[in-house]
Amino acid sequence: MSERPATLQQLFDWLVDGAPGAATPMAVVEHLGTELRASGVPVERIGAFVRTLHPHIVGRGFFWMPGAPTRVVENAWAGLNSEGFKRSVPAKVEQTGLEVRARLDAGQTGYTGLDDLQAQGFTDYLMLPLKFMGGTVHSIGFATKTPSGFTDAHLEALRFVGRPLARVSETLALMRTAVNLLNTYVGRDAGERILAGRIQRGDTEAIRAVIWFSDLRGFTSMSGERTPAQIIAVLNQVFDCQVPHIEQHGGEVLKFMGDGMLAIFPIVGDDVADAASRASKAGTAAFASLDALNLTRPSEAPLRFGVALHVGEVAYGNIGGASRLDFTAIGPAVNLASRIEGLTGKLDKRLLLSEAVAAAATFATRLVGRFELKGVAGECPVYETS
């Protein structure tokens, strides 16, 4: 294209400048499609595919058509090894780092997905590699329904904007990866606080929360009978019984400590009863999942864990060495929750509540007893749900 339309050059410059005003990948794709059409390129569908680092999601697809919002599809790791993906255009582009052009009106394409586009009336397709500086290759595809397909000038225009688009895509992908990794390893709320700049040692705040402390029973004897890999597999199963329900009920998992786990249910306003109710419901659901898990392993001893709930003020934030920090919650309230959890095995109880939780609870509770706990003055009343 000897003389590029001004709108195309403006789009190129916008991408070079980092796509100002577009805070999300969806906004970038929508602006890209709109401006390409304004430049005379008859794009009627865009499909971008970008990998990410996430324990469940291998990447995301962004699909745009004129007049419709961008549709986002999250792709699971299992799909990566499927025969359908292996025969797809994104797989070919990622493997070779080269573009793929396919005239959809010329018969069978040989690629998964393109026959569907052909059936929808699309006539031409171009997928470009998005090469990141880290060496990975991602992709973006453009399709048109114009009877004559893309002209050479159209193809040149798409390749032209594809260069700066790769840099914008990499920046957004790195931001997404940072969020994914922080949410995975420190929790959603803690990750947001870290990204917002809460990264200095001692940078903490006092918050009130219902504290969840859980521990797997019989872990010591189990460790002597199983290989490390088997122990890790069991721990993952036990944590899978808890984590989804904690998050579903507004809790935040802060730390895994061997076979134990610390989580909090932040108190919104002064509504302790709501946080206590959410934590209790998460406990009920967690034990239901545990029962279902044990049914799948009838030849083995049932897995068991105990949970203690307490409410109090915790210091929430960064502790550790100067260059190695941990985002966690500490304080006497956490210690008391841990001590109460230690009673679950001795009393053969699944879920125990502190007096503070029982006092705030809107659900029925009953006193289990009063106990002397290490580091706690006087006898501590302990409750259970009834």
Characterization of the model:
With 386 residues, the protein is of the alpha+beta class. The chain has two domains: 6-185, GAF domain (Beta-Lactamase, 2-Layer Sandwich); 198-385, Alpha-Beta Plaits (2-Layer Sandwich). It has twelve helices and 14 strands. It has helices at 6-16, 25-38, 83-86, 89-96, 114-119, 152-186, 188-195, 219-225, 228-248, 272-295, 332-347, 355-360; strands at residues 45-51, 57-64, 71-76, 100-103, 124-131, 137-144, 204-216, 252-257, 260-266, 305-320, 325-330, 351-354, 365-372, 379-385. The strands form two sheets. Strands 7, 8, 9, 10, 11, 12, 13 and 14 form an eight-stranded mixed beta sheet that branches. α1 (6-16) packs parallel to α6, α6 (152-186) packs across α7 (188-195) and α9 (228-248) crosses α10 (272-295). The longest helix has 35 residues, at 152-186. The termini are far apart. The model has no long low-confidence stretch (mean pLDDT 90).
CATH class of the largest domain: Alpha Beta
Record field, number of beta strands? 14
Question: DSSP strand (E) fraction?
Answer: 25-35%
Stretches where pLDDT is under 50 for at least 5 consecutive residues are: none
For the record, the count of structural domains works out to: 2
Listing every helix as H and every strand as E from the N terminus to the C terminus, the arrangement reads: HHEEEHHEHEEHHEHHEEHEEHEHEE
**CATH-scheme architecture of the largest domain:** 2-Layer Sandwich
Number of distinct helices: 12
Could you report the average pLDDT, rounded to the nearest whole number?
Answer: 90
The radius of gyration computed from the alpha-carbon positions, rounded to a whole number of angstroms, is 27 Å
- CATH homologous superfamily identity of the largest domain: Nucleotide cyclase, GGDEF domain
Determine the fraction of residues in helical runs and give it as a percent range: 40-55%
CATH topology grouping of the largest domain = Alpha-Beta Plaits
Report the principal-axis shape. elongated
Q: Which class of secondary structure composition applies to the elements?
A: alpha+beta
Main sheet?
Answer: 8 strands, mixed
End-to-end gap: 76 Å
